[in-house]
Specification:
The chain has about 325 residues and is of the alpha/beta class. Helix content is about 45%, strand content about 20%. Helix 11 links the parallel strand 4 and strand 5. Helix 2 crosses helix 7 and helix 7 packs across helix 9. It starts with a helix and ends in a 14-residue tail after the last strand.
């Protein structure tokens, strides 16, 4: 019987997980965390936000139980996690991504129909929230990801489908001449973000990399989190364009969410594939083996792979690196 109880508890955590998510999202929508850098009563919060007092008390208690707030008497304030990630002025702010998650929530609510038809949900989204949400996520890992790439000899780089330009900025800070390629609306928002961060040395190309020219003679093409939105056919097309756009010593570096070869772990990678099912016509989380095969078939050499937490870097070069020849030693 104890095993049944444990199994039921695990199941309850799954079906009840939406509650914590919804509380986090709703509090973010009302900018609750920006008010709680110092202790405030529920009444003070309700009056400032013009929301119901009883509802505010219940919401703040729930946030406290989730480890986001601290309660002392009848007052509440942020715990460090909320100050670091949920307040607008923090350099690691994740609020835009959480607002985008609210959009995803509504799409995921139609998963039953998606599973039946195989067709994604068609719903307009706030594109600036999406792009800034991508920036939120990238700020947590951009520096370490770029440092994980061998940039020796790299003078020019293309950030393909670079969205907010977070990775472009990291490369530009290292003196690399970077070109950011994305849809016109993404470029418009990226320019705002890059100007806010006061980073110089980034060029821009607007277009659709499936059909438009992406430039040429790059030392590096960095493709982060774009392949999962497209079909295998489109990805092979894009990677062929990358090969053609590199100079004769260039390389492509792909950055994607990791999923095991049998597609069953980790949980984040498998659920992200469901997210692509809900929101794209042909996307999914691809295995490293699939991506490596595409690169090999296209003609890339020296394929390398490096696992980074829940993502993976896969590199392919235009040229073959030969082993260093042994030196003749005279005895």
């Amino acid at each position: 019987m104890s095993n049944i109880r444990e199994e039921a508890k695990k199941l309850r955590e799954m079906w009840g997980g939406f509650r914590a998510s919804r509380v986090l999202i709703t509090a973010n929508n009302y900018r609750v965390y920006d008010l709680l850098k110092d202790y405030q009563t529920a009444r003070s919060v309700s009056e400032k936000l013009k929301i119901d007092l009883r509802a505010t008390e219940i919401l703040l208690d729930a946030l406290t139980s989730l480890g986001l707030l601290k309660k002392s008497g009848d007052k509440y304030k942020n715990l460090p996690i909320s100050n670091h990630l949920l307040t607008k002025e923090s350099p690691y702010y994740q609020g835009d991504m959480i607002r985008h998650a609210d959009y995803l929530w509504r799409n995921w609510s139609e998963l039953d129909e998606v599973i039946k038809t195989g067709n994604p949900v068609q719903r307009a989204r706030d594109y600036e929230t999406f792009i800034r949400g991508m920036h939120n996520l990238a700020t947590l890992k951009a520096k370490s990801v770029i440092k994980s790439i061998d940039l020796k000899g790299i003078k020019t780089a293309l950030d393909l489908g670079g969205g907010p330009g977070t990775y472009s900025m990291e490369m530009a800070k290292m003196g690399i001449k970077v070109t950011l390629f994305d849809y016109p609306e993404a470029i418009r928002i990226a320019k705002k973000i890059i100007e806010e961060k006061n980073v110089k040395g980034i060029n821009f190309i607007s277009g659709d990399f499936i059909i438009d020219d992406i430039g040429s003679d790059y030392d590096l093409i960095f493709a982060s989190q774009i392949l999962h939105s497209y079909s295998e056919k489109d990805n092979i097309l894009v990677l062929k364009k990358c090969k053609d756009a590199l100079n004769n010593k260039g390389k492509v570096v792909i950055h994607e969410f990791y999923i095991s070869e049998d597609r069953t772990r980790p949980v984040w990678g498998t659920l992200f594939s469901v997210n692509m099912l809900v929101n794209t016509t042909s996307g999914r989380t691809y295995t490293s083996k699939e991506i490596r095969k595409w690169l090999i078939d296209i003609g890339f050499k020296n394929i390398k792979e490096r696992l980074l937490d829940d993502t993976v870097l896969i590199e392919g070069k235009i040229f073959q690196t030969l082993p260093t020849p042994l030196k003749r030693v005279t005895l």
